[in-house]
UniProtKB/TrEMBL annotation:
InterPro entries: DUF5351, HSP_DnaJ_Cys-rich_dom_sf. GO terms for cellular component: chloroplast. Keywords: Membrane, Transmembrane, Transmembrane helix. The lineage of its organism: Eukaryota, Viridiplantae, Streptophyta, Embryophyta, Tracheophyta. The chain crosses the membrane at residues 40-60. GO terms for molecular function: protein disulfide isomerase activity. This is Protein SPA, chloroplastic. One of its GO terms (biological process) is photosystem II repair. It comes from Kingdonia uniflora.
């Protein structure tokens, strides 16, 4: 059964089919990937590498942030928390004994520590507190 429409604007009769039919569906080619064990392992290693490359720096950043929030009270290891180390030239005495020969000796003030017998600790810079790892590094212009 078909319907005919007449219109003064149209010169011919329009006819519609009784049922609307859908256009035929287009079929797409099926892509089939045969993944062997080596391919799966390679993809897995790639994904894990990317995750580790992102995760490890994020982990260390969070650890640095947490460490900077905590007070550092660990005493300096080289100077035992005193902030000073014995002079290596005079062994902490402040004097240097020079043998002039034929059993003559001369005692003079140490030129390294200026007769004090100790120097400021180079690890803690005299504070007596062990610096954190990143605090020990001196940043220079070429870094």
């Amino acid at each position: 059964m078909s319907f005919a429409l007449q219109s003064p604007f149209l010169s011919s009769h329009l006819k519609f089919p009784p049922k609307l039919q859908r256009p035929p569906t287009t079929s797409y080619p099926c892509i089939r990937a045969d993944l062997d064990q080596n391919t799966i392992v390679a993809i897995s290693v790639g994904v894990i590498s990317v995750a580790a490359g992102i995760g490890i720096p994020v982990f260390y950043e969070s650890q640095i942030d947490n460490a900077s929030k905590r007070d550092n009270t660990q005493p300096c290891f080289p100077c035992d928390g005193s902030g000073a180390q014995n002079c290596r030239f005079c062994m902490g005495t402040g004097n240097v004994v020079v043998e002039l020969g034929s059993s003559e000796t001369e005692v003079s003030n140490c030129i390294n520590c200026e007769g004090l017998g100790s120097l400021t600790c180079t690890t803690c810079q005299g504070s007596g507190i062990q610096p954190r790892y990143l605090d020990r590094r001196e940043f220079k212009d070429d870094d």
